[in-house]
Amino acid sequence: MSSLTEKDRPIVQLLLSTGTCPRCIFRFCCMGSQAPYKRPHKESMKELKEFLKKNPQKEDTVCIEVADPPCKRIRLENTEEQPDDLNENGVLKKIPLVNEDNTALESSAVKVCNVCLGILQEFCEVDFVKKVCQKVKSADYQFTSFVFSVSLPPQLSVRERAAWLLVKQEMGKLGLSLAKDDIVQLKEAYKWIIHPQLSEELGVPADGKSLFEVSVVFAHPETDEECHFLARACPDCFKPAKNKQSVFTRMAVIKALEKIKEEDFCKHFSCPPSSPKNCCVALEIQCSNGAVFVAGKYNKYSRNLPQTPWIIDGERKLESSVEELISEHLMAEFKADSFNFSSSGREDVDVRTLGNGRPFAVELVNPRRIHFTAEEMKGLQQTINDSSDKIQVRDLQLVTRSAIGHMKEGEEEKTKTYSALVWTDKAIQKEDIAFLDDLKELKLDQKTPLRVLHRRPLAVRQRVIHTMKSEYIDEHHFRLRLRTQAGTYIKEFVHGDFGRTKPNIGSLLNRTADILELDVESVDVDWPPALDN
Predict the structure, then answer these.
(1) Which residues are catalytic?
(2) Domain limits, the chain
(3) 3.30.70.2510, 3.40.50.2000, 3.40.50.300, 3.40.605.10: CATH of 292-411
(4) Is 405 exposed, middle or buried (0-12, 13-18, 19+ CB in 10 A)?
(5) Residues 6+ apart with CB under 8 A from 251
(6) Which CATH class is domain 414-523?
(7) What pLDDT does 312 receive?
(8) Rounded CA gap, 239 and 242, in Å?
(9) In which residue ranges of the chain is pLDDT below 70?
């Protein structure tokens, strides 16, 4: 115990006598070395006793007094009776810390710690580590490292504050000080102990940047009871929130502790913190993988297939969608919980997407499998393509989250090429439509189309038709190929949408025009990178 010095002696004596475990004592002694925390509990307790026995000015009893407060129990019950550990003035009696038989030390070794409530005791033992690892292994995740997170009961902050105020008072009598921020955080100490054990059992290193997370949620049955005085003292810190079973969240408790005065705290909560009735329980042991992103380009060959599920007033209109035909296979192979589909624009249900296809990306949430070779991705692509004649995908590959930004970058500055089959009410000849080929950089004012007004805000958007090329078919039909600014409503440019798009093909030809078919021939977004498929 060479890292403990003479100035730590009063802290060790004080906390051992009040039921604090050795590892919490190390924290209050500001021990930044990890080694002492990793020692077995019994060994640490033995060394602490030996450290105290070396006291050159050995005394039978070391005493503390706490000015004021009657203990929490008496205040809550509002009774006239005095507990055994208070004198007639409501002041804590002298507490024997170390006697000749070391009985105080012996009893503290078997009790649940009054500060960490057992977190740094039984939950650091091999049995619990194996329990966590069994949960991880049974979840069947692929991972090469892990990050460990822990959620602690909120009242641990209250108990730590009580212990600190006690130590602070005793140190002050000796002309010494202990800043709260100097105390080693419980979570940090716990991870020092647990990380090497988990790493050895799982066979992979702990890494703070790992996408695979192992989390443990600890709870305690007396949380509300022990935090209730804070709600009375600082009611504005505790407000009911959705999805929260209790108002006593960790952040709310910390906020209240920052506001309450030390003297008010001591009036309502026992200093030192009382021995707990129960140990903490591990409420949940969970695993999760960070999202994996898959990108590619898709062609849509059906005129009866929406890009995403088509649901109106809760009723599904068509049986499938581009999103589902692609993502259902990715979900199965990556063993993910859910997915999020995005693309560079979208086409209507009756519009085909041809050419090199439309870029898309799928976020796979909490996947169990994350490692795929290029050959396996090629096989997955083939599986998707074999499953339906309505779509085909190409350039299927794993990408990073940040890379998806390329798909959306400058989306409105990109160009798209379309092919439209146009009908006119009045007969036309080749020369009637030839002038369209000479129109360049035609500027449009497009008021939000009536067909999308239920889901898009009303606005007038300026768009540009860069070039057009007409192909005469017969007196009432011609094909029009257009290269446009992304975001242009092509159907409305043809029929005018009751004058909401100006100019339009109808107004340019001075006759009624409508669109019979529309194909997207290219989306000029150079992402994701083309693969040699």
Answers:
(1) 348
(2) 292-411, 414-523
(3) 3.30.70.2510
(4) exposed
(5) none
(6) alpha beta
(7) 81
(8) 10
(9) 1-2, 55-110, 242-244, 410-412, 533
